[in-house]
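Risk register update: the risk of archive-format incompatibility is retired. Evidence:
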Amino acid sequence: MSVGGLFLTSTASARVAGKSMTSKVVKEETRTGFGLILTTPKGRALYVDTDPPCTSGCLAVWPPLLMPKGKTVPTGAADLGTVAFGKKLQVTYEGRPLYTFTSDHGKSVTGNGVNGFAVAEVAPPAS
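Archived output:
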């Protein structure tokens, strides 16, 4: 399933010990069988819930992607936003909250189609 649309990497700049640092909230990577998908800065696949939003017990398996402390908006990216998540902000793509999957390891994408979740695809695989 593709959630499609244009995506630019979200970044926020900060100064640490006189050096410019860029902290990415979300990035895009190509994954075999999926095409271009959204990932965390460490490369973990991101998913959207195709059913009602994930709550309570669901969150133990599908942790939400939350904004880093001190940040309020994932800037520099079309289609990224936030939604209230308790006292924090959860990152969204095209208005849909983003999650990771606890069974994924490294660059695996094992949660696609599990419990109504779909990998957050930016572009489908090339034919």
